[in-house]
């Protein structure tokens, strides 16, 4: 799996919290975490969810991500010292303990491009779930073709960045119908000096039947398929596939 500069480059990583706001996925995980003594955030990024979950209760919270630049931001955030941050790969990391809740938010699951990588990530979830623990993650529904919105025309916006000042931002995108993989570019032009920061990222859009099969193979079972993080039930037109489940009982 290639390294994604969007998360590995400190200047690009520094845009993550400017571009993303606390939203329904964090709220949903927060309510699922109620009563949980331990939470694992896989693909935790800049760690705002993990830090919030560690701050609000006496619980063990671990955040795992392979991107050092994202983890540096996570460690430095208020409350970051209450989380155990682990630089690791969601496909292979083994922490030697189990959790009451395992989450992947912000469509982190889509970084796993092949069914083999997706299965490996699901096996990581299974290996870290307590017998009564639950997992949840989101993956965009390919039927909605959300990538069509990520063109330069529709995505162009201006950011007021705390370090770089005014920045013009946009994306471009390519969809490979043979693999279902979407490659998107992220561009930030710093207005003051004209410098361009950019990355190319690849994400998968696995269809629901593929997710269902892999989840079963990993030894997991889904209790509910949500269609968004506010709790709406899944329909074929939902923007997201959000399985909420647990270990498969043998
Ligand atoms: C879109 S961000 C989501 C971050 C965070 N979960 C959130 O909701 O803000 C995707 C994250 O997945 C991480 N990632 C990439 N490859 C990964 C892997 N093999 N295992 C675990 N995480 C990975 C990236 O470094 C990045 O932090």
Please, what is the CATH homologous superfamily of the largest domain? Vaccinia Virus protein VP39
User: In the CATH hierarchy, what is the architecture of the largest domain at level 2?
Assistant: 3-Layer(aba) Sandwich
What would the CATH topology of the largest domain be?
Answer: Rossmann fold
Radius of gyration: 18 Å
Query: Biggest β-sheet: count, sense, barrel?
Result: 8 strands, mixed
Question: What percent of residues are in strands?
Answer: 25-35%
N-to-C terminal Cα separation, in Å?
A: 33 Å
Q: Describe it for me?
A:
- The protein is of the alpha/beta class and 250 residues long.
- It has two domains: 5-142 and 206-247, 3-Layer(aba) Sandwich (Rossmann fold), CATH 3.40.50.150; 145-203.
- The protein is built from nine helices and twelve strands.
- Strands 1, 2, 3, 4, 5, 6, 11 and 12 form an eight-stranded mixed β-sheet that branches.
- Helix 7 crosses helix 9 (208-217).
- Bound molecules: S-adenosylmethionine.
Set down the secondary structure blueprint.
Layout: H1 5-8, H2 10-13, H3 16-19, H4 24-32, E1 38-42, H5 48-55, E2 60-65, H6 68-76, E3 84-87, E4 99-104, H7 115-128, E5 129-137, E6 139-140, H8 152-155, E7 157-161, E8 165-175, E9 182-190, E10 196-203, H9 208-217, E11 220-226, E12 240-247
What is shown here, in short?
By secondary structure, this protein is α/β, with parallel strands linked by helices.
